[in-house]
Each structure stands twice: as C-alpha cells, then as structure tokens.
Specification:
Blueprint (H helix, E strand, L loop, with lengths): L11 H7 L3 E8 L9 E4 L5 E4 L26 E5 L5 E4 L7 E3 L2 E2 L4 E3 L1 H5 L2 E5 L3 E8 L16 H14 L5 E4 L6 H10 L9 E4 L8 H6 L16 H4 L4 E5 L9 H10 L1 E2 L8 E2 L3 E6 L10 H7 L2 E4 L10 H10 L13 H9 L5 H17 L6 H4 L36 H10 L4 H8 L3 H9 L12 H10 L4 H8 L3 H11 L5
Parallel strand pairs: 11-16, 11-17, 12-13, 13-16
Antiparallel strand pairs: 1-2, 1-10, 3-4, 4-5, 5-8, 6-7, 6-9, 9-10, 14-15
Helix pairs in contact: 3-4, 7-8, 9-11, 13-14, 14-15, 16-17
C-alpha cells in the first residue's frame, strides 16, 4: 500500500464499498462495562446467527470470547438470518424478553436491507443490553492511536492511516464534518511522527484577521505595517522542526492561499516587509469540514495538500462506536465519579439511535448534561438534552420487508433563500444546538448559503461582536457548556468555540 492509495483519486474507497462485508455485532452497552465494545463477526454470508444468554461469543481483539451471560437475556434466541443479497431478517424469541430494533419494541420478524445495515441497526435485548448490527470491511484489531476511539472498520482504517502517514513528511488533509475528531487525528499524527518531541503548533484559519493573516503566519519585520513597533515571529517560524496544524483550511483568506502554496512547493516564505526569503521545515496538516472543490478554494494548493487524505466519517456512519465513545467520555469526566458508568439503558438506546449532527463533540456535551441531570436525581431523556424536531421515523413499523430506511435521513430538497424567514433560520439553529451544518441540512440549503442567512439575520450575532463580559457571564450561567452558551448569546457554536480559544476565556 502506498501513500497515493489514500488520495481522492484512489479507487480504494470504491473497492471497499463493493467488497464482501462481514456482518458485525458490537456490544454498545452491557451491565458489565468491560464488555462494551466486544464484537462477534458472522463470517457466513448467507447463514444465521442466534443470540441468547450463551451464544455467540463476543470478544475484544486478542482476548477470549464470552457469551452475553446476563440473566435477563433469554435462553430462547433472537435469530438473525442473512440472505445472498445481504438482506437480514430479525426474528424475536418466543420468550417474554423485550426485543427492540432501532428503539421500537418488536413482536414479529422484521426485515432490513443492506442500506439499513450500512447505517447501523440498534438491537436492544431485555432492556439491559444494546447491540449494533453493522457491516465490517476489515477484521477487528488492536491498533490504538492517541485519543482516536472506535471499534468499527471506519475507526480501524483511520487509525491505520494515521500511523502510516505519521512516519512520512507528507502534508496531510483531514476531511470531515465538524466534531468528527480532526484535531485529535492531527495530534495523533504528530505524536507518532519523528517530530513528536516538539510542540504541535495550531492555528484556526477562520479566526485569522485577513489584514494581519500574513503577519500571523509568516511573521513581519519592525515597521512592516501600521502599529508594528517590533518584529513579529510568525507561526511558520514557531513550527520550525515541528508540525503546523492549519484548522479550518477552507476559511483561509484568498490572498494567503498562494503564499501557502509557495511554502508547500519550495519551503520558501517571506515575512512581511522582509528583503529575503526564509526556509520552512514545518510539516503541514490541514483540516476542513468544507468541500474545497466547490468553494472557490485555490485548486493548486488543494493538489499539494491532498498528498495524503484521511476521511473522518460522521458519527451517524459509525454507530457501532457510540458505546466505547460513551465509556471513554465517562472515564475522562469528573462528573461521572458519583454515578460511574451506570447510565440508564433507555438513554443509551436513544443516544445510539440519534443522528448527532454535531458528531462526537455534540455527544460529549449532551452526555455532560445527562450527568448533571443524574446528579440531581433526574431521569434524563434525549429530548430534554438536545433540541430536535427531525428525528427519523421508526424503520420497524411493519413486520414484513421494510423499504423506508431510518438512517440516514433523506436530504431535504434545496430551497431558495428568499423562501426562508428569520424565524425559520432561528428555529433551525435552536433545533441543532447552534451548529451550522445541522441547521443547513434541516433547512435544505448549502453551508455557504447558511452563512449568508446568518449574516443577514437580525437576532443572530457574530461571536467577535459580543462583549467579552457578556460571553463570560453566559459561560458561567451555562456551566461552561459551549452549546448552551451559544444558545444564550444567539451565535453559532463553532464560531463561539473558536473565539473562546482566541481570547482565552476560561470554560470552567
């Protein structure tokens, strides 16, 4: 496998889609938290899997297999039959054990097609154990990469790519929706590289002031621009011998893009006002949630950045990882000290069935709200933790062949901006925790169009236009929850998060 196999022009992804996939069963939740993330791979393409208290054997990579073993699971099995066309039939047992498919209790066989399995099917057993049925395109294996959590094939492949490219000097482009872990991937690449002893230097390109962006990146000599009393060291100079992470590369000012292209081509750059070029030895990692092919981005720069591309899929496309992600987030949260890992199973089921427009970042914040509610003795429900009006309908309404897919939701038809009122825009932002991507999908508009709607909205503000003290007070009121703070301030969550890093307001 060569590095070029992972560029956008590679046929690798198409080959993987067309390859014969294994039916994977991953434990999302179990009364014994150590069992979360264990898997069983059904290797027979047209066979039958029976799930009861004693079979099959689930295992972590390299560990011995164990049955579910929980007393609330019936000895009479749930049968999962797969045909030669990759359709499956789930047949509940004759016992009284409650069986749920995608959050809905079933009492008769339910048929699902390959596409529905592609998005992950959530199987609940006895209101105690939750299993995800999904396709696996590689065998489970232990290939840790710093902070990048997951047991499904998408996570395994991403970690392999992180480790592969870390040993090279190639520039890397990380693509994925907001909240999918692009910064975590960048830090992992740096940590496994020869430059790991140096500090990773990060810059959010969306937060750069266009007038000062060149000085911020490349430095400036004394007197090079108005108000410059001293020479200024740029980020490329700070990243000498290290890694420079350019987050939100799609928001790079147009005047800066040719300068970045020159650095990638020759390593040369010139500080503002300087007479001579300087040489950069920084290794570049860039990340974006935008489509760089349709946003007017410098295509020559894109060709240089795409030497090695890692696609980070949205959480809704790796539903099998939700259990281990919850476990990881609980283990790193101070709020979980009082309750451990004993989340209500019904809440975990809702988490597993939700589409998470804000991805892992949103999952972390919603879990934090759930822990706060549990500390107060409340029984949290997803509807009270995340505002949503577009939860997909159940895919198990019939006990025959199901043709309406629950996941993913069909894309909304494109709308003209003139058709949308300020109330429509405000409601969509509120419904999606003030995340722009989710609101754009709900309204059926592109992301650039969504930015125009926000800029023209009478009530929605830019984070940098809000007084610092008002932001500080809102953070205190929302207990440091950025999404809750964004709702109070009526400003997009992503922009607020970037601004908080820029002005260093503490989120205690």
């Amino acid at each position: 496998m060569t590095d070029t196999d992972y560029t956008l022009t590679s046929p690798l992804a198409k080959l993987a889609d067309n390859a014969s996939a294994l039916l994977g069963l991953t434990i999302i939740w179990h009364p014994d938290s150590q069992r979360i993330g264990e898997q069983f791979m059904a290797s027979n393409p047209d066979g039958q899997v029976e799930i009861n208290r004693f079979l099959p054997l689930f295992r972590h990579p390299g560990k011995d297999g164990l049955p579910l073993g929980y007393g609330g699971i019936s000895r009479d099995p749930v049968r999962i039959s797969r045909d030669g066309y990759d359709n499956i039939l789930i047949t509940p047992p004759t016992s009284r054990m409650v069986v749920e498919v995608n959050g809905e209790e079933i009492n008769a066989p339910v048929a699902l097609n390959r596409e529905q399995l592609e998005a992950g099917v959530i199987l609940g057993l006895g209101r105690a154990i939750i299993i995800c049925l999904h396709w696996m395109r590689c065998l489970p294996k232990h290939n840790p990469a710093l902070g990048f959590i997951g047991v499904g094939s998408a996570a395994i492949v991403a970690r392999d790519q992180i480790r592969q490219v870390a040993g090279t000097e190639l520039p890397v482009l990380l693509l994925g929706e907001t909240g999918t872990g692009k910064e975590i991937a960048a830090r992992a690449i740096h940590a496994y590289s020869k430059r790991a002893s140096a500090e990773l230097v990060s810059v959010n390109m969306a937060a750069l002031n266009e007038a000062l962006a060149a000085a911020d990146l490349f430095g400036a000599v004394k007197g090079a621009y108005t108000g410059a009393q001293n020479a200024r060291k740029g980020l490329f100079a700070e990243a000498e011998g290290a890694t420079l992470f350019l987050d939100e590369i799609g928001n790079t000012p147009g005047s800066i893009q040719p300068m970045l292209l020159r650095v990638l081509e020759s390593g040369d750059y010139r500080p503002l006002g300087a007479q001579q070029d300087q040489k950069s030895s920084a290794r570049l990692i860039a990340a974006t949630d935008q489509d760089l092919y349709s946003e007017g981005f410098n295509q020559a720069l894109l060709r240089r950045l795409e030497s090695f591309i890692i696609h980070l899929p949205p959480l809704r496309a790796r539903r099998e990882d939700i259990g281990v992600l919850l476990l990881h987030l609980l283990s790193t949260s101070k709020l979980s000290n009082e309750i451990g890992t004993s989340l209500p199973v019904a809440l975990v089921s809702e988490f597993a069935n939700y589409d998470w427009p804000g991805n892992i970042r949103q999952l972390a914040h919603v879990l934090r709200r759930a822990l706060l509610a549990l500390q107060l003795g409340e029984v949290p429900q997803l509807a009270s933790l995340v505002k949503t009006t577009h939860k997909a309908p159940s895919s198990v309404a019939q006990a025959s062949i199901v043709t309406d897919s629950k996941f993913p939701q069909p894309a909304s038809p494109r709308k003209k901006l003139a058709e949308l009122s300020d109330d429509d825009v405000l409601r969509a932002m509120e419904n999606n925790d003030w995340y722009i991507q989710g609101a754009a999908q709900e309204l059926g508009v592109s992301r650039p169009s969504m930015y125009k709607l926000l800029d023209n909205h009478s009530q929605i503000r830019r984070a940098e236009q809000i007084p610092t003290e008002e932001i500080r007070q809102s953070l205190e009121t929302s207990a440091g929850d950025v999404e809750a703070c964004a709702a109070l301030l009526k400003t997009p969550s992503e922009a607020l998060r970037r601004y908080l890093k820029l002005v260093e307001i503490k989120k205690d």
